[in-house]
Design goal:
Elements (H helix, E strand, L loop, with lengths): L3 E5 L23 H11 L4 E6 L4 H12 L4 E6 L21 H7 L8 E5 L2 E2 L2 H11 L6 E6 L10 E8 L5 E13 L2 E5 L5 E3 L5 E9 L4 H15 L9 H11 L6 E2 L6 E2 L5 H14 L10
């Protein structure tokens, strides 16, 4: 069984003061996506497709690609605002690419097997990739990996998370994008647009954009993107997200999308302030012999 991993690494972060996806951690100077590919390789993934921007192609290949190409097949796809289906032209007022699912569609010519999608700046843990691989041994469905909301918050800033709504069979009903989530004392809250807030149960589940897709699902996703463009092409900021695609598959195509539990530790580097905690987390995993100090040994 062949499996592809699509790594979303095209976007930019002004809040991080640089190309966050190329930033490195610990003394061996590994980027977080190197740990992701290392884990995926151990879980029987055999190809990784990096979705990047043409503007930093050479730097990305020099700092990341050349190292990873030594032990797994690598392809590169480029996300560009102008990379739209035939018949559509990107307006001059457009300010940024068209979202996470547009990024995935940018890689469709390189995807040749069922595939998982992850963010470049998130650490998902070895168990998460193993959960996906084990699921595929007896299932042919789209799926997502979930995390408890209490385990995926920043100590410094508010975050946005895709909160999962499930049926009694632990299948996804919808993913609700929830913004401005934060910790306060021993509780978790989210702000509404009307300046009020509401409390979120610490055990509620959310998606961290670790999703699994069947290869034939790409046909639906392309169709949905064209419909999205027909309605929204002149909106300079609106984006096309993966959770929207999953929700449409459930509601319109009657897909059953299981939500897969994982015991893996997740962490991130959305802000510079997160980097110290991320270094400590990686140190701990190395001390526990879960990762070698040098991933290329």
């Amino acid at each position: 069984m062949s499996l592809n991993l699509v790594v979303l690494a095209a976007w930019m972060w002004s809040r991080y003061w640089g190309l966050k996806q190329l930033d490195t951690f610990w003394s061996w100077h590994h980027a977080l996506m190197e740990y992701s590919v290392y884990d995926a390789k151990r879980a029987w993934f055999d190809k990784v497709i990096f979705v990047i921007r043409k503007s930093f192609e050479e730097e990305f290949k020099e700092k990341i690609g050349k190292k990873i190409e030594q032990f797994i097949t690598v392809d590169y796809a480029f996300q560009d605002m102008n990379g739209l289906p035939s018949g559509f032209v990107c307006p001059e007022t457009r300010e940024k690419p068209w979202g996470t699912w547009h990024a995935v569609l940018s890689a469709k010519d390189y995807i040749d097997w069922p595939f998982a999608v992850i963010n470049a700046d998130d650490f998902y843990g070895r168990e998460s990739y193993e959960v996906i691989a084990n699921f595929l041994k007896s299932n042919d469905k789209n799926a997502i990996v979930w995390y408890k909301i209490s385990e995926v918050l920043s100590d410094y800033w508010t975050v946005s998370r895709g909160m999962c709504e499930l049926n009694p069979q632990w299948e996804l009903i919808a993913i609700h994008e929830t913004k401005k989530i934060y910790k306060k004392d021993w509780s978790i809250f989210a702000d509404r647009e009307n300046w009020t807030s509401f409390e979120i149960n610490a055990n509620e589940l959310c998606s961290m954009n670790m999703m699994w897709f069947k290869l034939d699902s790409l046909w639906y996703y392309e169709r949905y993107f064209k419909e999205f463009l027909e309605k929204n092409i002149n909106d300079p900021k609106i984006e096309f997200y993966m959770p929207e695609v999953i929700t449409r598959l459930i509601n319109e195509e009657w897909e059953h999308v299981p939500v897969l539990p994982t015991s893996a530790q997740w962490f991130w580097v959305t802000y510079q302030e997160d980097k110290e905690n991320t270094n400590k987390s990686i140190d701990k995993l190395i001390e526990e012999w879960l990762y070698p100090m040098n991933l290329r040994e």
